Amino acid sequence: MKVRATGRTVDGRGAAPAAARKFARPAIALTLAAAALLLPFTVATQVLRSAPKPIKPDEVYMQPVPGLTHQQLQKFKAGEKQFRAPWVVFPLLGGEWGLGPTFLASSCVGCHVQGGRGRTSDTPGTIVFEQLLRLSVPGEGPDGGPMPHPTYGDQLQVFGVNVGLKENLKPGEAELYIDWIAHSVTLGDGTVVELRKPAVRIEKPNFGPIDEKVMTSLRNTQVVFGMGYLEAVSEQDILKLAELQKSQGLNGRPNYVRDDINQRTTLGRFGWKANQPSIRQQIVAAFHGDMGVTSSLYIEENCPPVQAACRAMPPGNRPELLDYAWDDLTFWSVALDAPPPRNQDSPVVKRGEQLFEAAKCAQCHVPELKTGSFPLLPQLSDKRFRAYTDLLLHDMGEGLADGRPDFKAGPRDWRTAPLWGIGVSKQVNGSVNLLHDGRARSVAEAILWHGGEAQRSRDAFAAMSREERDALVEFVNSL
Question: Containing domain of residue 18, as a range?
Fold first, then answer.
C-alpha cells in the first residue's frame, strides 16, 4: 500500500500502519539531506543566471540608465520594441499600420541604426535616406519657425508606399543624391588634410520644380542616447552658461521654439539647431515627418494640398501611433544611458584633455552639466554628467552655414553637439560621420570645419604638432 506524506492511506481510510510510518521518516530525512546537498549548486546556478551579460559592441548606445525598477525596465523594453517595430501601409501584414503615404524610413531603427548616427554614402547614384533634406521658403511660419514649401512641406520625402499592385504605387516626392566636393587644407606642420562638403542633387521631382529660391539643409541622423540627461538640465542653468560665455567673448544663445504639447514658446534643446523643446515632441515630429505616421499631437497625414494621391489614401488608424506606444517610446528615450568614458588614465588621453582646454574647446563643449528635479525619471534628478555640450546655439562660420534660419537659429548657427560616445560610434553601426550633414569623417575633420566663434579653437588645433593633434583626438574619442 502506497503512503502519502500526510500519514493517511491512499484511499483515505484511517492512519497508516506503524511499519509504514517507520519507513516514511528515514525517507523524509534522506530527501531533506539531498536537498541540503543540492542547495549550494542551486544558489550558484541562480547567481550565474543573475550575473549581467556582457554588452555587445554594437549595443553600447542601447543600455538603460542604472537603477531602474522592474516596472521601469518592462516599460523600457516596451519602448525599445516600438523603436525597432516596422511600419507598413494598411492593410498589409508584417508591421504596424500607418506608414506613409510618403516617407524616409519604415522604422526608427532604419535610420538610427542601433541608436547611432547616420552613415553617408560615397557610392554615386545611391538615394539618400539616413540623412534628410529640410526645405523652406523665405519668411516665417505661423509659430515663428521656418515657412514650409507649399508643395513639398518642410522636408523631402524620397519614398512612397506600394500596396502590392503597380497602380497602387504612391510616388515619393523626389529622389535625393549627394555629390561630395573635396578640397585640401594644410596644417601648421605641413600635413595636408582632405575635407569634403556635400552638394545636394534633387532629381525627378514629382510635384513641380524645386528652384534655387528654396532653402535646403541636409541633416544627418543623430544619436538617441543620453537625451534624458539633457532634458533634465534646468533652463536657468543653460541661461547662466550663456551669460558666462558673453564674458568670455562668445555668443552662445538659446533657441526659443514652439512647444506644441503645451501650446507655448519655450527653450529648444534637441535637433541640430535646437528646434525641438522635448523628447516627447521630438518623437512624434519624427514619426510624422520621417515615416508619415500620425499621432494624437499631429493627427493629420503629412500630405501637402497639391499631393492628391497622398491625401486620398486611407490612414492605418487615427491616430496611427497610439498614446501608450508614444509613452513607452518616450520613456525608453529618456532612460537610454550614455556609454561610459574609456581610457581615462592613459597619459595620452590626459595630455589631450589639457590641449582641449588650452584650445578653448571646453568653453562651448562644456565638460560637465547638472540635472535638476526630473519627475519623468527621478533616477536622473540632481546628477552630474559629462556630455561636453552647452545646449546653446553658436555662429559656426560660413563654411558650415546652411543659409536656412530655424526659429531663433540663424543661417550660420548650430547647437553645440555633445561629444560623449563619439569614440565607439564606428563599432555601433559603422558610422564615423560627424557634423550636421555628415561631411566630417573623423574628429580631426570636424574640428577643421569649425569657424565663426570657434575659429580660434580650430586654428589652435591646426597649429599643433601631429603628436598633439593625435592626443586631442584620442581624448575626444575617449569620452
Answer: 1-51
